[in-house]
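Note to self: keep these together.
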Amino acid sequence: MVISIFKAIAVAGTVSGVAYYALCLWAARWFFHKRRFAKRDGFRPPVSILKPLCGADPNVYNSLRSHCIQKYPEFEIIFGVSDPEDAAIPVVRQLMDDFPELEIQLVVCSQFRGANYKISNLIQMLPLARHPYVLVNDSDICVGPHYLQQVMSEFQDSRVGMVTCLYRGISGKTLGAKLEALGISTDFIPGVLSARQLEDGIRFGLGSTLAFYRKALESIGGFECVADYLGDDYELGRRVAAAGYVVALAECVVDHHLPDYSLSNYLRHQLRWARSMRDSRPRGYAGLFLTFGLAWAIFGIIVAHPAAWAWSLLALALVFRFAMAFTVGVGVLKDHQLLTQFWLIPVRDLIGVGIWAASLTGRRIVWRGNQFTLENGKLRP
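Structure:
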């Protein structure tokens, strides 16, 4: 009797997971259509790029330099650090020497304006921005030369208050980094696209790009409103959408350079990220167990071996799982690392189930060497 119940659970879980993979494939079609028919009518408003920094991330010079070589008529870059001895400061000084024609500022943000240090820096940087549009992205993001054109063109629709964009992980040599990159391309981004389809639009932001019309940002209370939130990107997008503005997804995809995580650091980072998502979207996060199609199919093999139907379900799950991974990872994100690392997807999926289960309880996280407790998405010492 118990085995029969387990078999039924395995079948139901696999079928729901395969349905989710199909949803992600359908959602990817929308992005292909957007990329093909993207409008570029010459809307090029002046923009202030805000780059909060904390230490020297992998590939930091090239990542920051990529923002200096934009094919865009008018922009400024404001870098902000909280520590006057921060390791990123010499890199910024080098950029100032290499691009003397650009408007580049370096700001030491000496005040602490909330538990989220990045947002604390942004609160102090924003008053120095001169332009009606501001763009924020993480320090480890590397962009193409037409990045600003592709992002800012979304604001030609006067309803748009914020623009975000997709990203791919660029991994190093460690297993932890490779698993992180795989998770971004074959799990997280497919989830973003499927959420957009189910909710008929984006109602959150991604740290890879948060571009704002300043009036929209001011309407939600500025960066101060998320000064204590871990998932600041999600919260900012949610609040902009709730204020009646459209959150647009740009056609560009940027690079996120990953550190060489050890396996233990990878697991800690994933657990922090998972708990952040749990607090940001509790109902959606609880429902993720319905998306673990491959894991459920493997569970079916365990409880029903050597039944032919169990192997058939596993084959079906593998076909849809890899179809979704390659369609989004390679087709949408142009993540060519996936071509050599795809065999790790089942490993990553099984680890993902464990992370999901572990994240359902506990509120302690470690972020940039500091320990916090999460309370309704907010950071508490």
